[in-house]
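Many introductory courses stop at the sequence. We go one step further.
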Amino acid sequence: MPSDEWKYFMDNYYGNPYMMWHDGINEKSVTRLVGEERDQAEDMLIQSLKEGDHYAAIGLRELRSEKAIPHLEEVLQRSSGVLAVEIAVALCIIRGNHEFVPQVIAVLKRSPFWSARIRAALSLRRFPTTEVIESLYESVARDPDYLVRNHASETLLFLHSLEPAISEHKEIFNHMIFEYDRDGGKPTEEAYDHYSECARLLRELIEAQGSVRQETIIDDIWSWNR
């Protein structure tokens, strides 16, 4: 008979897709499993990963599954968006290095989907490197979507040991939320001037008040389901 921990894991990783998206999952639920159930979950997650399930990459990351490494690397080669982000983060956490951080940065810079760019911006809270920091400043200055600029800004604050609440910095925030005529589908040159000023002021604030976190992998500092 399945344990309560197994049922909880299944509810989180193989539950109602809408509720998983809307409410988030308890990523740690898989770590409660032991013995054969843990092994079975690992095999299930590897199979789900091959089918393109980004939650599977999260579960394998939480399990620190070395068995999954070749599968994660193979699927990453044909992945994009949120799936690519979660696989890259999983590989970094399991391997204990920054090797796949560039794949996360690539999604932040080039994904056509704002939701994927947000996931990348949030995931970069784990990796306080110079390359990450500069890519986040670029997103603050250049991303056309307010939510991406917002999360990139708050990740920068977090990485410099400041409260990740950009709206508390009114002058910076006002530049970030500058409205533009969306009929043309793109920010105007004036809008980008405001976003660039937002990035400049944010850098100025951080250089005056912040301190960069230690350049190492930071685990478990961010959960998608707040």
